[in-house]
Amino acid sequence: MPTDPIELAGGRSAVEHQLNHHGLSLRLVVNPGTSIAPPLLLMNGIGARLELMQPLVDALDPTRTLIRFDAPGIGGSPRSCRPYRLRRLVKALAAMLEELGYTQVDVLGLSWGGGVAQQFAFTQRAQCRRLVLVSTGTGSIMAPANPRILTKMLTPSRFTNPSRLLGGLGQELYGGSMRKDPTVAFAALKDQKTDTITTGYFLQLGSAAMWTSLFFLPLVRKRTLILAGDDDPLVPSINGQIMHRLMPKSELHIYEGGHVTLITEADELAPKIDAFLDAD
After folding, report:
1. Is the dihedral of CA 31, 258, 226, 268 positive or negative?
2. Phi, psi (5° rounding) for residue 198?
3. Rounded CA Rg of the chain
4. Around 132, how many Cα atoms within 13 Å sit in the side-chain half-sphere?
5. How many CB atoms lie within 10 A of CB 104?
6. Nearest CA to 46 among 111, 109, 90?
7. pLDDT digits (tens, 9 = 90+) for 46-104
């Protein structure tokens, strides 16, 4: 059930929910809007709580209803008592949306959240109207980042140790504007530390281990916008091209930027997302 309205950064009202389905308990925040269009469900990157999406929330059409959640063990969501897979998380999210009265949503996934979004579009066909995939790929079978970069993803230290982020890790991991001004990375990610981040982080890593969408993406016939940065060290833009070729109703936009440009320069990508979601 919803709690009282809460205050987050930005000017939009927000209502928080704590729901439990399929053995997963999640914190969800809804920013209600006046539009009759389906709500937009935002799926975050690994290790980040829902507040990370606030710059995008502020940049999107204020009449659009937005829904965010913390993954198990991150932010306000308690950690799962056992490991979970993306399919189970998607089923839990679908049930929670139905409990809140949302029978159909648009879905946006960033990085790890892009994998959840792909699984949602495939598993919950009737519940997903349109799909936006940002800085993401097809999972365990994809064009990989440099192994040296991948090893740095095995620890959540970029969230818990700001000095590492400012000392060059931000530029190395995220590319784009992070190379010119590492303080941008710190400003975007400094509030992501949580008491349970280590457990939650590794649960997220495990949830996508051996998972791939490569074989089912041709069956996802939702209108899809794929956004890929031309300087993304974590998910090279060729992955966006691969998904575009696999998905029959997709369009690809390669932007100038890195892995988290959606957050650090939300004003640049939000109009593209709004236009796609509102198109006939």
Report:
1. positive
2. -65, -50
3. 17
4. 24
5. 14
6. 111
7. 988 999 999 999 999 999 999 999 999 999 999 998 999 999 999 999 999 999 999 99
Per DSSP bridges, beta strands 105-110 and 40-43 are: parallel
* Reported confidence tier of residue 198, pLDDT bands at 50, 70, 90: confident
Distance CA 180, CA 125 (A): 41
* pTM attached to this predicted model: 0.92
Number of continuous H segments (helices) and E segments (strands) in the chain: 12, 9
Helix (H) or strand (E) holding 254: strand 250-255
CATH topology of domain 2-144+195-278: Rossmann fold (3.40.50)
**Mean pLDDT score of the chain, rounded to an integer?**
89
Does residue 155 surpass a pLDDT of 50?
yes
Q: Would residue 177 show up in a list of annotated catalytic residues for this protein?
A: no
What amino acid occupies position 57? Answer: V
Distance CA 54, CA 14 (A): 11
Domain ranges of the chain: 2-144+195-278
Q: How far is CA 157 from the centre of its chain?
A: 19
Tell me which of 80, 111, 177, 237 is the catalytic residue: 111
Q: How far apart are CA 19 and CA 39, in angstroms?
A: 18
Question: What does DSSP say about strands 14-21 and 24-31: parallel, antiparallel, or unpaired?
Answer: antiparallel
**Rounded Cα distance, 209 and 86, in Å:** 10
> Is 211 within 8 Å of 85 (Cβ atoms)?
yes
Secondary structure (DSSP) of 15-43: EEEEEEETTEEEEEEEE--S-SSPPEEEE
How many whole angstroms from its chain centre is CA 224?
A: 15
pLDDT, position 64: 98
Please list, in sequence order, all residues whose beta carbon lies within 8 angstroms of the beta carbon of residue 4, skipping any fewer than 6 positions away.
none
154 CB neighbour count, 10 Å cutoff: 10
